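W.,

You were right to be curious about this one. When I first looked at the sequence I had no strong expectations either way, so I just let the prediction run and decided to look at it fresh. Below is the sequence, 376 residues in total, followed by the output.
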Amino acid sequence: MLTFLFISYLLSGIGYLIYVTFIKNRVSLKAQKYSLHFILLACFAIPFLVHSYLNANPTKTKEAKLVQEEFVQVCDNFCPDEEEINLCYDVAITTSDFCNCASIEKENLIVYHSNTYYNFFMYNVETMRKAVLLTVVLFAIILMVKIISLQYIIFISKKRSVSIDGEQYLILEPNINLPVASFRLIKKYIIWENSLNRLNAQEQSAILYHEIAHIKNFDTWWKIIENVLLTVWLVNPIYYLICKDFKKLSEFIADEYAVQKIKDKKLYASLLLKMQQQYATLHKPVPILVHGYRATSGKSLLKARIEKIMLQPPIKSGYVELGIGLLLGLYVLISSSAINFINYECKKIEVYQTLSDQHNNTGNTVFCKQCLSVNH
């Protein structure tokens, strides 16, 4: 589990770098968002597939256990250096019952030195596993509370069904102070507030179409996935950069859809400004799982949204295929290298633990790797 967690952190950074270099602001908004979806999926799927392939390979199955020959090979990492080999040999030949070999050979000697790095993993891996598991459970509970809060909003709200472009939506009018928002569970919901009834029909339609775009793009489910990822990427800075880009792209795509429907960019831009002015004084925070019309209307994002609507900056030349191809190649290469490296490090820790146990039991620091491999 910790192996996959470490590799996912590494891959997320590489994937985001490729995204920024070849894809971001160079292709359509949806293509950018789908690319981020792919990067997130690949961060976990590629290491799992590579690990499955390596374990399924007949030449690799023996690596599941430290067989005697492999143990001896790994022991070479603990051989004494040239300066201490003669001293270790003198210790070996003067120690009674040193080993069961016919003769003591210098090349078979290994020496125990206390290692802070190995000691940390020996004594703390289980604690780390429990900490990760506890974090996952804690965030799972928080996620369930958020989902329950959405169910509560549904329960306390007045409901009316509307048909827009042939699809049914449930309009919720809660008796608590919430901004207009949307979410998709089994059904499609739009939270509506009475103050919006003062807007003209075209402005109300623009708000509805914005929320419908969030529903069509399954943004609620991606918000849930973000919350799930937070359980394992809590200290991953790349996670927060990806979430920030998701947030922007979701709003840009919803704005684009609404403008296409009402066919009036100026009206929509002025509506955003009007909603921003009301935001500071009228409403309590919207639940984080809900995609609110004003939940992402910070000044910098608001400015970016209006510029995107009014100016429609030209899309630069993008290299989606090249970026995705490079990403896949690097992900496979890095995953296989990282898995092999971590597996080998785990074998070194197992050898070190054997040396440490022998040292604690006998007080010796010099051992025969051939005899140790039989008894490990």
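Here's what jumped out at me. The two ends are 25 Å apart (CA to CA). And, maybe more interesting for your project: The mean pLDDT is 83.

Coffee later to discuss?

I.
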